[in-house]
Amino acid sequence: LEIYGAGLGGRVPPYPMTFDELERRAELALPPSIWSYVAGGAGDERTQRANADAFSKWGLVPRMMVGATERDLRVTFCGMSLPTPLFMAPIGVIGLCAQDGHGDLATARAAARTGVPMVASTLTVDPMEDVAAELGETPGIFQLYTPKDRELAESLVRRASTSGYRAIVVTLDTWVTGWRPRDLATANFPQLRGHCVANYFSDPVFRSRLDQEPETNPMAAVGHWAQTFGHAFTWDDLDWLRGVTDLPLILKGICHPDDARRALDRGADGIYVSTHGGRQANGGLSALEMLPDVVDAVDGSAPVLFDSGVRSGSDAVLALAMGATAVGVGRPYAYGLALGGTDGIVHVLRSMLAEADLLMAVDGYPTLASLDRTALRRTI
Ligand code: FNR
After folding, report:
1. Residue pair 322/293 in contact by the 8 Å Cβ criterion
2. Whose CB among 28, 39, 163, 288 lies 3.0–4.6 Å from 54's, allowing a Cys bridge?
3. Is the pLDDT score of 201 beyond 90?
4. ipTM of the modeled complex
5. Catalytic residue among 102, 224, 276, 347
6. For this structure, is 224 an active site residue?
7. Which domain holds residue 239?
C-alpha cells in the first residue's frame, strides 16, 4: 500500500519499478568491467536467458471468491522463522557494486530492514563477522566455497557459527569457474584494490599458510581463489563436513533428483536448486525446469531453496507454486545496490514482495500452503 499509494499519489519512485529499467540504469551506473562481472554469464549466456525465460512458460490460474484479504507469507526452514519466503542469494565481491566498496555491509543492512535473509558469500569483501553484526534480527546464512584445505573449510564454518550464521550453503558448482567471455573481454576490477575479498584473506588458517603477505591486486586475487578453492567437493567431503558442524547444511547447485535424494541420505539438511544464474555451465537448461523433479524427489522431507532467473514478485510466486520453500533473488538486488546502496536493495526487495503479495491476493492464493502445482498451467 505504501509503495502503490505513493505512486498513485504522483510521487515518482526514486528507483526503477521494472527489472528492465533497473538493469538499464545499473549498467549506466557501473564501470564496464564491473558491469560485465555482475551481468555476464557463461558462454553465449543461453542458460542465463533460459533461467529468466522459463517463467514466461507458466501461468497462475486465478481462483475467485476466496476472500484472500489477508495474506500470510511466513515460512520456516532449517530452524529459521522468516516473514517472507525470499532470500538474497550469495554474490561474491558484491562490494564492487557499492560506491564505498562495502556492499556486503549494505546488503546486511537491507536484510535487517526487510527481514529478507542474506546468504553471505565466502568471497565477501567485508569479513563475515562485520557482516553478521549488521544483520539485526534477520537470520544470516553463510555460503561456503569448498577449499582444498579442510582446515580452512573448518575455520570458515567455525567463524560462521561463532558469529551467529544460522545455516551453511555449500556451493557445489563453482570449484572451477565457468567460461565467461564478458569477464575475459573486460577483466579489470579497479575497485578491488586495497580491500580484496577480506573475508577469506583475513582467515587465520588462510594466513597461517602464507609465506608472505598476499598481493591484493585483482589478478593475484583470482590466482589465490583458484589455488585455494579449486576443490571439487565429493560425497566423502560432505560426510566430513557433516561431522565438523551442527549448523544445517544446504547444498547449492543441485538440479538432478538423484543428487537431491543422495544428498539428503548423506546428511544434508536442505537442497538449493540453482544454475548459478547461468554463470557456470551454459547447457541451456533453466533451473526452473528442474525444480519440480527435485521437489518430487525430496518429497517434503527437507526444504528446497531455489534461485536463477527470478526477476519479479510473480516469478517468485511461480517458483513457490512449483514447490520451492524459499526463493533467492540474485542480480536484481546487486543492481539495487549499484543504484542506491541499502535503500536501493530495500526498494528492489519490497517491490518484489509487494508484487508477490498482490498477485496472491488477486489470484486467490492467500497462503503459501494454498499455492501448489494445481495452481499452475503451462502456457507454451
Ligand atoms: C553469483 N553467485 C554466487 N553464488 C555463490 O554460491 N557464491 C558466490 O560467491 C556467488 N557469486 C556471484 C556473483 C555474481 C556477480 C552473481 C551475479 C552471482 C550466484 C548467485 O548466488 C545466484 O545463484 C544467481 O545470481 C542467481 O541467478 P540470477 O537470478 O542472478 O540470474
Report:
1. no
2. 288
3. no
4. 1.00
5. 276
6. no
7. 2-378
